[in-house]
Amino acid sequence: MPTTVTSGMELGAKAPEFALPDPTGKIHKLAETTQAKAFLVVFMCNHCPYVKHLKKAMVDFANAYRPRGLAMFGINSNNWLSHPDDSPAKMQVDIDQYRYPFPYLVDESQEVARA
Predict the structure, then answer these.
(1) How far apart are CA 50 and CA 36, in angstroms?
(2) Contact 77, 43 (CB under 8 A)
(3) Residue 26: phi, psi to the nearest 5?
(4) DSSP annotation string for 61-74
(5) Is 67 exposed, middle or buried (0-12, 13-18, 19+ CB in 10 A)?
(6) Other C-beta atoms within 10 Å of 12: how many?
């Protein structure tokens, strides 16, 4: 479970900037989406039963809307010491298995989740 509870952001609010690594260490930045018409940030993790249920649907959604200008990011803010299935190595397994068409990023400090 997340250690940070948020009340959400208002629709149309400017998202906080972030620069996070994927499991291979490549940094991805929100600023890279300046040409996107819209973007979606999904806070997700490997062990979550809701995410497990929606992985294929998220891939289908991203594949359908990316050509229409959607930029999408998956962000894992879980502590993988307490949730080993959420480690970067296991994230890479998920990326490979489901062929995520979006970056699946590591928020080790949970700073992005807090923002």
Answers:
(1) 27
(2) yes
(3) -70, 130
(4) HHHHHGGGTEEEEE
(5) exposed
(6) 5
Task: Report which secondary-structure segment, H or E, holds 106.
Answer: strand 104-106
Measured CA to CA, the distance from residue 68 to residue 36 in angstroms comes to 9
Statement: the pTM of the whole predicted model exceeds 0.85:
yes
- Reading the block at residue 20, the tokens are 């996070």
Is the pLDDT at 5 greater than 70, yes or no?
no
Note whether 112 and 75 are within 8 A (CB): yes
At residue 39, what is the residue type?
Answer: F
Token duo for residue 12: 């149309």
pLDDT by residue (tens digit) across 31-75? Answer: 988 889 998 999 999 999 999 999 999 999 999 999 999 999 999
Nearest partner of 39 among 6, 15, 10, judged by Cα: 15
What does DSSP assign to residue 107? -
- Residue 51's pLDDT is 92
